[in-house]
Structures are given as structure tokens and as C-alpha cells.
Amino acid sequence: MGHLLTRHFLWGLLPALLAPLLFLAYLPALEATAAELSVWRWPLTALGLAGMALAALFGQWRHVLALAAVIGLPMLGDTDLLARSAGHQALAVLITALVLAGAAVLPERGPTGPILWLAAGLAVLMLGLMLRDIALPMLVARPLAEFELAGRSLALTRSAVAVLLCALAVTVLQGWRPDPLRAGLLAASLCLLPLTGALGTEPPLRLAIAPMLLLLWAGLLLHAWHLAFRDELTGLPNRRALELRLRAGPRPVGMVDVDHFKRFNDRHGHDAGDQVLRRVAETLAGTRGARAYRYGGEEFTLVFRRRPLARLKDFLEEQRRALAERPFRLRTSQRRRKQRGKGGGRGIKITASFGLAMPRRGETPAAVIKRADQALYRAKAAGRNRVEIDE
């Protein structure tokens, strides 16, 4: 449970805590003029276009739209599309916040999915900005409250409240289902707060583009890291991540294999097999003193910190019992639709065999894994659902 809470905090709540730091970072630049910031126009635009190309390569069309909105925000300030008023600037900021929130919340279904409707709605709102006599911009910019803090006048505007509500909605979703791309979108949306008049001044729209692009790029790079080093099915680090971990030197290694998995797959189908692998991965991820990895197929690896042998065996026995003594509830798609809320599905017993190897002086990590694998096969040959050790 502890590792899950840590993961949810890092990916869900940490971006929301960036808001005070972003406010402090903006303070020295609030007096900058649009002319002073225009020198960064084309380099930042190129950075945004490169990010759009990378996002499209990854099939992340929501991120493509988010980057396009960020690039377009300062461009609006440099053209005659916007009236030179705080109201129209606040409306542009609000539209960008809605785009980022939509990109974070909508499911990814390609360029013709929900993202297309979001883009269409964005186009309609942008057209509305050209209407100079509408009352909406000034309504958005109107402050709800004004106060002073550390000698600076602050204002709580409607657009600031809207940006915060969008960020809050994304934070809730991110805390429930962490995702690196969504973390970047959340952190980028918080960069819009100083542009809403909340700091008592109206800085140029271009002020936000650099930190927003960097945060969106960070989300893309973290997504690429996940693709390379995370197993998509179980969420555990994959074999490539295991190899990187063991470059630091050999550690005690436990190899785990789900008993009779092929027979289970043949009988219940691959969807049920995937459920079993996710259940086993969730259990192993909670192993005390170890990091769990998906080795391949139905095999997993546990890399331990250096502990006494008896202690490590106790940790493996805990996980063996946790799997064997808690029936697995098989859920089919038909049951999900018709029997939701009516108790668990059919109980199926899952067991696994464990092999543990302690590193020897001068031994390579590959040799430790090989001995742990041999101990695992001895456990299976001895009847399965047991722990064997190779000292």
C-alpha cells in the first residue's frame, strides 16, 4: 500500500504543489514587456512544434492539441484578434485552461476521437474573441475579491477561479489514475494563474509559454521513459529496467513464476490470464525490502536490499501465502456489465513458486539471476507453491 500511495502522490499531487513555486518564479518577470519577451517567440514556437511532432509520433493527440493551444496563446496577444483589454486576455487564458483540462480528462482515441470535438469547440471560442462588443471577456476578468499580501495587491478573478477548478478536477483524476502526460498538463495549467490578474497586474501572454512548454515536454519525456522501462500490462518496471538496476552490482534476487499459468490461459482465456498477472504484480509490488519487475511471460523478479538470508525468505513466504490464501475473483466483461455491485466473481486459487539466490563474491548479476532461476525450477519440481533457496 505504501508504494501505491507514494506513486499517487508523485504523479497526482506533486504537480499541484508547484503552484506556490510558480507564483514566486513569476514575480521578477511581471514587469517584462511584450517587446522584451518577443525575442523568444520563434525558438519557443519551434520547441512547441517539435513537441507536437513527438506527441503525434507517440499517438498522443490530446497532447498535440494542448501544445497547439499553448503556442497559440501568445500569438493571440501579438495580433489584432484580441482587443487590448484585460477582459479578452482573461478569456484567452480561460480557453487555454479548458483545453489543457480537456486534454487531461478526455480518453485518447486518435485524432478523430473526442479530441476533435474539443478542437472544434476551441475554434468556436477563438472566433468569439474577435467580437469586440461581447460582455463575456469583462465578466471573466472581473475580480471577486481583492487583498494585499507582502505589500503586493492580489485579486481573485473569475478566470483565476476557473483555472483553479480545472486544475482541481485534473488533480483528482491524476491522484486516482496517475499518468506522466496528465502530470505535465496539470503543472502547465497552473502556469496560467499569473496571467489571470491574480497578481494585481496584466503580464504579457507570452510570459507563460516557456514554463508551459517545458512542463509539457517533461510530460512527454516521462511518457517515453514509461514506454521504455514500464510493463504496460502490470505497471511494473520491465526487464530493461531490471538490467539497469543490476548494473550497480549484484543484489539478492528472487525469481517468481505463476504455477500452471499456461493451463489457466488455455482454460479461461488470455483476458483472464492478464487479470491473474495484474493480481500477482500488485501483490509482489508490496514485497517488503524489494523492488518487483516483470521478467517476461508469467515470470517476475524481486531485487532485494542486502538483508540476512532468513529475513529474505520470510519476505518471500509472506508473498507466497498472500497469493495462495486469498482467492482470486475472475471477472468477465459480461459480468462487469450485468452484475456490478453484486459481490465477487468465481473464486480461483492462484499459487506461485519462488527461487531465491544470494550474491557471491565476484559474481555477476546475470549469474545471480541464473541461480535464482535454478532454485525456482527446484521449487516447481518439488510440487510448486513453495520457496527454494540457492545460497
From TrEMBL:
- The EC category is transferase
Cross-referenced CDD domains, in alphabetical order? GGDEF
Give start-end positions of Basic residues composition bias: 332-343
Pfam families xref list: GGDEF (PF00990)
Q: Which GO terms describe its cellular component?
A: plasma membrane
**A GO biological process held by the record:** cell adhesion involved in single-species biofilm formation
Q: Where is this region: Disordered?
A: 330-349
Q: What is its EC number?
A: 2.7.7.65
Query: Which catalytic reaction applies to this protein?
Result: 2 GTP = 3',3'-c-di-GMP + 2 diphosphate
Which keywords does this chain's UniProt record carry?
Answer: Membrane, Nucleotidyltransferase, Transferase, Transmembrane, Transmembrane helix
Residue span, GGDEF domain: 249-391
Q: Where are the transmembrane segments?
A: 9-27, 39-57, 89-106, 115-135, 155-176, 183-201, 207-229
**Keyword Nucleotidyltransferase among record annotations:** yes
Q: What one GO molecular function would you report for this record?
A: diguanylate cyclase activity
Q: Keyword check for Transmembrane helix, yes or no.
A: yes
Q: What is this protein called?
A: diguanylate cyclase
What is the protein's species of origin?
Answer: Natronospira elongata
Q: What is the lineage of its organism?
A: Bacteria, Pseudomonadati, Pseudomonadota, Gammaproteobacteria, Natronospirales
